[in-house]
Design a protein that fits this description.
- The protein is α/β, with parallel strands linked by helices.
- Helix content is 40%, strand content 17%.
- The strands form 4 sheets. It has an 8-stranded mixed β-sheet, with helices on both faces. A 3-stranded antiparallel β-sheet has the order 11-15-14. It has a two-stranded parallel ribbon with strand order 1-13.
- The protein starts with 7 loop residues before the first helix and ends with a helix.
Length: 373
């Protein structure tokens, strides 16, 4: 019986996140305080908040919350949306879509549960790598087609991409969907960073709107700066899937936190304000990162992200990036995530662009690498 492997990124964060002074690699945006969120709330959600009964909630999610989520999609009505913690939803989706012996193709690098849960179920997993091409990130559609076999049941992608900040074109996405449709594959898209595109013209439609067997994963942790609410959702056109997800959810959390659901409703109704605030932080930090990489061009190469609150620059110094990251923790109390945590070669490391103290954390890292280069 397969066993699930340790989650390298989460174990790394568990070890250092609450012990160091600076985080250079968080993937979320600067978290909103409860007071900030309440100040953004509309009268109806405030009424729900003040009259809230701390009871069990509906398993699919509060009806008003699912109605608000459904406004983000053209072809996923409230009945085809299931609300839970994002990580839980990955676990549920994989266990309801896959059986031992199935074949899965997953983008790489990726958040580990996007492929590790499938492996633990007993599936064979092939990777579709994001590649470095002349200082940019690219995906080779021919490599994707070559990775698909007669046993392939599921294709897993993540756009905007974590950890690179890569965003494909609509033309590329249409080609991916056409390939999935031709092979009758489910297509699971992690869209946790959607709506954080730096150029709105490049924003991709949700996968659940584009493809009849598409599944969109989204949530409040990244784009909405509310990871503490532990709320996300799955959305799909396929009317047969939500009941399967809910049947499995009866063995996980059953239902969601009542306060989180109402606070989540507030956030969705204040989406424009929250997203504008987060993009302002990210854009400012990108300028700081670009300047830093220019000043340390012999040590760090910048790979421009196109969306999201993360980037994946490359370390050019003599020491291995794992050694640099470990010494940064030990000597400067700066946590930096090396690319090997994502099972990705090439001396890359992740930086998080969504926090207000990014410049201070980067300054500490810069002082460290000048000694280590």
């Amino acid at each position: 019986m397969p066993t699930i492997a340790p989650f390298q990124l989460e174990r790394y964060f568990a070890k250092y996140e609450f012990k160091v002074k600076y985080l250079l690699s968080p993937s979320d945006c600067e978290s909103l305080t409860l007071n900030e969120l309440l100040q953004l709330a509309d009268p109806d959600s405030l009424r729900l908040w003040h009259s809230l009964n701390l009871c069990y909630t509906e398993s699919p999610g509060h009806p008003a919350l699912r109605e608000e989520i459904a406004r983000m999609y053209e072809h996923a009505p409230p009945a085809q949306i299931v609300v839970a913690a994002p990580e839980e939803l990955i676990f549920i989706a994989m266990h309801t879509l896959l059986r031992s012996g199935d074949h899965v193709v997953c983008i790489s690098p990726a958040y580990q549960s996007l492929y590790e849960v499938a492996r633990a179920i007993g599936c064979d997993v092939a990777v579709w790598p994001v590649e470095e091409v002349e200082g940019q990130w690219r995906l080779d559609l021919n490599r994707l087609e070559s990775a698909i076999t007669d046993r392939t049941r599921l294709l897993v992608v993540n756009f905007p991409h974590n950890p690179t900040g890569y965003l494909p074109t609509r033309r590329d996405i249409d080609s991916v969907i056409e390939l999935a449709r031709r092979r009758n594959l489910f297509l699971f898209c992690d869209e946790m960073y959607r709506l954080l595109e730096y150029d709105e013209a490049g924003r991709l439609p949700p996968m659940c709107d584009l493809y009849e067997r598409g599944i969109s994963l989204s949530g409040l942790s990244k784009t909405f700066a509310l990871p503490g609410l532990r709320l996300g959702w799955l959305a799909t056109q396929d009317s047969t899937l939500p009941e399967q997800w809910l049947t499995f959810k009866d063995y996980t959390t059953i239902c969601n936190s009542a306060p989180s659901e109402i606070l989540g409703l507030m956030a969705l109704r204040a989406a424009d304000s929250i997203i504008a605030r987060n993009l302002q932080i990210i854009r400012s930090n990108i300028r700081i990162a670009e300047q830093f990489c220019g000043e340390h061009a012999s040590l760090v190469r910048w790979f421009p992200p196109r969306a999201g609150s993360i980037a994946f620059p490359k370390w050019l110094g003599r020491a291995p990036i794992e050694q640099v990251c470990q010494s940064a923790v030990d000597e400067r109390e700066v946590m930096v995530v090396p690319g090997s945590i994502f099972d990705f070669p090439g001396q890359h490391f992740r930086v998080g662009l969504g926090r207000k103290n990014f410049a201070e954390a980067l300054e500490q890292f810069g002082a460290h690498v000048q000694l280590r280069g």
